[in-house]
Amino acid sequence: MVSEPEPIEAGPYTIRWWETGDADLLAEAVALSSDHLRPWMPWFDSEPMTVEQRAELITYWRNIARSGGDEHFGVFEKANVVGAVGLHRRVDPDGVEIGYWTHVRHVRRGIATAAARALASYAFRDAALRYVEIHHDEANHLSARIPRKLGFTLRGTYEAPRCAEGHSGRECVWRVNRSEWRGHF
Q: Residue 67's domain is classified under what CATH number?
């Protein structure tokens, strides 16, 4: 059983596991950002959700995280949801993938970069982890800026299923190894 981590401070942002009491804030952020997120996020197929459904989803996320699976974090500025970031264990046992999104009212403020940086450092606390990856669709140019800024290396661009309406069918995979990360941050 994995215990919930302490909140992570990343400049003016606090990154912490979602709590069921955040369901209404998350619902509002997703609803307001729908046009911004829908082209890139495969999970948007299940939107819209009620606040109750979202609270159930958060409970599910917390249970998965406690069992050593994916971790879903809210990114907060004071009491406001400004984005989300996740640590996904879908790569292989030696690595994890970071995913992120930013509330449409807060884009281009460095939030996703700060959150991804903080989450990579958090991930590397696991001594068994060798690398962290960021994957994004080739057409998502805003998302591509983040791994580049953080010193990740583009490993390649691969054919991928078109899982969301804006997807090109080409996925970029960026990676940073533990030794490289220690040298950067």
A: 3.40.630.30
Report the number of distinct structural domains present in the chain: 1
Threshold 0.85, pTM exceeds? yes
- Per-residue pLDDT tens digits of the chain, which is 185 residues long: 889 999 999 999 999 999 999 999 999 999 999 998 888 888 877 888 999 999 999 999 999 999 999 999 999 999 999 999 999 999 899 999 999 999 999 999 999 999 999 999 999 999 999 999 999 999 999 999 999 999 999 999 998 888 877 778 899 999 999 999 975 65
Q: Is residue 26 part of a domain?
A: yes
* Phi and psi angles of residue 144, each rounded to the nearest 5 degrees, phi first: -65, -25
CB 96 within 8 A of CB 132: yes
| Terminal C-alpha separation, the chain | 29
Q: Which domain holds residue 111?
A: 8-131
